[in-house]
Input
Amino acid sequence: MNYQNDNGTGILLQNQTYTIRFADSADNDRLCDLFQSTSFTGGLSVQYLRGQSPYDSFLADGADARILLAIDRRADRLCAVGGAVIRREYLHGAAEKCAYLTGLKIHPDYRKKFPFLSKAYAFLHEAVADCRICYTTILDDNQDAISLLEKRHKNMPEYRYLGHYTTYCFHGGKKLLPLEKNNMDGFDELMKTYFSAMNLAPADYGYGGFGEKTFYALRENGRIIACCFAGNQQATKQYKMCAYGGIYRLVSKLPTRLLQYPAFPKASALIHHGVISYLYIKDHDPDLGRAFLRSVAADTDFSLLIWGGFENNPLRPALDKMRTIRYGSRLYQVLWEDTPAPRGIIGVEAALL
Output
């Protein structure tokens, strides 16, 4: 599919006020400015950034990125960005082209002023027409977006709620198990047998968005009984702690590392985080899972590690046995036409959200 118009500019819609077009690497400076204008809400106010090259960061999360920009022509200013990262993910046992919608980010100066939302969704629909499924996540605290998108609107896709997704932040590192590093013998078999059975699990563990990663494994009689990657993705994604509110204002001043919780960074600091992906625990044993993850954490120098699981992921009890900081999201299938929801366990990786 060609995402350029006849004159090669990529412009989809233009009037005296706005231009809507597809992004490319030349837009990185504009995208940086927009990401730095937004932050999470709630007790932990965190700014989610994509480094100095946000467009390339989107590309790292999959095989392609189809990102739409809305530009205020009078101010020559980016006012909104949204789009999709395309990657191969398992869907009912087969590797399929899937689209993760990255979420609409609107500059604070343009909220409730952007008039082309339904038109932008029409362009996005065309851009992801070759994908088997489109899905997205919205943070629980983003009530404005939830209220807007869960309500059906003319000329807008349906946001069909699939369930709840929890992201766990942990450390509590203590070496409890003898781990192997970077011996991946047997992992490809797990990809074929275990991860392929999880809907929306990435079918390619080589995506750059996983970061520079180390493979950890625990074996019994030569066979993997626990494994994961721990990746440093800070070249493409950063979390900046902006402020603490509510109970976190007090907790952030405590020596939380001594209590096996992650250390709270100072306000305005970038969080030295790592991401756990492709977590496997034999028989979903929560005690084994907890001991394995604590041992992995002990071997890394990250301030905290991040892993996420959908509500039906059988590994969540292992994280529930650990002392973690958690935040929740709602997982949606985004539908322009009625399509069956994925059945069975969902294996969305937090590293690529």
Remarks:
- Helices lie at 28-35, 54-60, 117-127, 143-150, 187-193, 247-251, 286-299, 316-320.
- The first strand starts at residue 11 and ends at 14.
- The mean pLDDT is 91.
- The radius of gyration is 21 Å.
